[in-house]
Amino acid sequence: MKSPLVSEVERHLEELAETASRSARELSGRIAEVAEMVIRTFDAGGKLFFCGNGGSAADAQHLATEYVVRFRRNRRALPAIALTTDTSLLTAASNDLGFEHVFARQIRALARAGDIVFLHSTSGRSPNLLEAARAARDVDARTVALLAGDGGPLRDMVDVAIIVPTANGAHAQELHLAIGHAICDIVESRLAGHGTAR
Q1: For the whole model, what pTM was predicted?
Q2: Which of 81, 90, 113, 185 has the highest count of CB atoms within 10 angstroms of its CB?
């Protein structure tokens, strides 16, 4: 007889697998569209920005690193910046301007037309991500939101919304990272060999 803990682990993983399968059926076209956007951005000399809160901040940092260093292949370094890592900047902006402006301020300073801002959120309601989307629009950067549930107000403020079909925040974050990896894998495959590996 299975222990209750084993059943709990199975339930978690099976729910994740079901959500992943549904996401593959419903979202693959949109994910491929974003991969094409990223390739065009790099080909034009643009860069990527990533932001999010909590676990989504960790995903933002993780994915920016995959582009700058490498994911699965040796290739040229690709310009990607996580807006979640500079503690002096984050605390100054929070103290002087309000936490809702911590990402928007950086986007206005660093992003340019043709860049892409990735916004990671399970709710689509975080004020600092809504402000980030407004700032990206102001500088003519493209926006991609990785969301879940109903997508919140952020879904209607971005160029592309990828909404994982779940209300489970943990599964949403797990799949946001998997989707980010899928995009990076496509981009890296296309760009491998364009320039030196180091």
Answers
A1: 0.93
A2: 81
